[in-house]
Design a protein that fits this description.
Structural class: alpha/beta
Shape: globular
Distance between the termini: 37 Å
CATH class of the largest domain: Alpha Beta
Strand order of the largest sheet: 2-1-3-10-4-11
Order of helices and strands: HEHEHEHEEEHEHEHHEEHHEH
Number of strands: 11
Radius of gyration: 19 Å
CATH architecture of the largest domain: 3-Layer(aba) Sandwich
CATH topology of the largest domain: D-Maltodextrin-Binding Protein, domain 2
Number of domains: 2
Oligomer: single chain
Strand content: 15-25%
Largest sheet: 6 strands, mixed
C-alpha cells in the first residue's frame, strides 16, 4: 500500500472511530489534534469530549490527526480545522493567522525522563553518548528538554543522539523495547499509555514545567457558533464524563492562556518559527 493510500485509510479509520450517528445535516466539525499519541489512543482518550460536543452542538465532531508534527503544523496554520487541540507554541502561531485560543489545560506540562524499568536515577552527565528518544523536534517537550540538557553541559548533535519518533507513546515504547536508552515525554502522555508499557519503564522528574496543550477554534466560524462552542467546552469539566476525563489524563480542567504563559513561550515560539522557516 502506498504512503498516500495508507494515510487515507488511517484518516477514514479515525473518522469512523470518532463519529457518532448524525445529529443534523450540517457538515461535521473538524477537530485537528496534535499527534502526541497514536491515532487509536487519541480517539479513545478524547471520545468523552467529542461525545459531549456533539450533544451540545447537535453536530458530528470528527478527529483529524496527522502522521507527524510537521504535517499537523502545516494543516493547523493553513486553517484546515474548525477546532484544534495542539501545543501552546503551535497555538500561538495559529493565533497569528486564523485561530482563536480558548483555553489551555490547567495542569502544567511536566517533562519526565523515561528510563528502562529498574534503572537508578542518572545524573544528566550520564546521558552522554546515549540515544535519547523524543517525539518531533518541533514539540515543546523536545525544545524544553534540549534546553535542559544544554544547561547541564550536554551539547546537541555532539554529546548524545536524539532519535525522533512519531509520538510520545512511540518514544516511551522505544525505551521499553530497548531501542533507546532514555526518552523525554510529557507526564500526561505517559499516563495515557497501557499499563504494560508503563511497567516496562521508570521515570525521573526533570523540574521542567511548561504551559499545557491548548484548545482553539477557527475565527471563520460564525459568532453564534463560536459562542456555542465556547460554552460547550466550558461546561465539559463539570460533567460526569468530563470529571473522569480530567482525572484520568491529569489535565485538571481548563484555564485561559495567561500573560505569564505567553512570556514563557516566547523563546519557544521564536525557535519554532526558525525551524519552520516562517517569517
Amino acid at each position: 500500500m502506498t504512503a498516500f493510500l495508507s494515510r487515507i485509510c488511517c484518516l477514514l479509520f479515525i473518522a469512523c472511530l470518532s463519529s457518532s450517528p448524525a445529529q443534523t445535516e450540517e457538515a461535521p466539525l473538524k477537530l485537528g489534534v496534535m499527534p502526541f499519541n497514536s491515532p487509536q489512543a487519541l480517539v479513545r482518550s478524547l471520545q468523552p469530549l467529542t461525545t459531549h460536543l456533539e450533544q451540545q452542538l447537535g453536530r458530528k465532531v470528527i478527529i483529524y490527526t496527522a502522521p507527524n508534527y510537521s504535517v499537523h503544523i502545516q494543516q493547523l496554520l493553513a486553517g484546515e480545522f474548525d477546532l484544534a487541540i495542539t501545543g501552546p507554541h503551535f497555538a500561538a502561531l495559529a493565533e497569528e493567522r486564523s485561530m482563536h485560543i480558548l483555553y489551555r489545560y490547567a495542569a502544567k506540562l511536566e517533562t519526565l525522563l523515561v528510563l528502562p524499568a529498574g534503572s537508578p536515577p542518572p545524573q544528566p552527565a550520564q546521558l552522554r553518548g546515549k540515544t535519547i528518544a523524543t517525539s518531533s523536534r518541533f514539540a515543546i517537550i523536545t525544545l524544553g528538554s534540549l534546553e535542559w540538557l544544554e544547561k547541564n553541559g550536554l551539547e546537541f548533535n555532539k554529546d548524545y543522539t536524539l532519535q525522533e519518533y512519531p509520538s510520545h507513546g512511540a518514544a516511551i515504547a522505544a525505551v521499553a523495547n530497548g531501542m533507546a536508552d532514555a526518552a523525554f515525554v510529557a507526564r500526561s502522555a505517559l499516563q495515557q499509555n497501557p499499563d504494560e508499557v508503563k511497567r516496562a519503564v521508570s521515570v525521573q522528574e526533570t523540574g521542567i514545567f511548561l504551559p499545557q496543550v491548548c484548545t482553539l477554534l477557527n475565527r471563520r466560524l460564525d459568532i453564534a457558533m463560536m459562542e456555542r462552542i465556547t460554552r460547550a467546552f466550558a461546561s465539559f469539566p463539570d460533567t460526569v464524563s468530563g470529571k473522569e476525563f480530567f482525572q484520568r489524563t491529569g489535565y485538571a480542567g481548563y484555564t485561559p492562556l495567561s500573560t505569564a504563559d505567553r512570556a514563557q513561550l516566547r523563546s519557544y515560539i521564536s525557535l519554532t518559527k526558525r525551524l519552520l522557516e516562517l517569517p
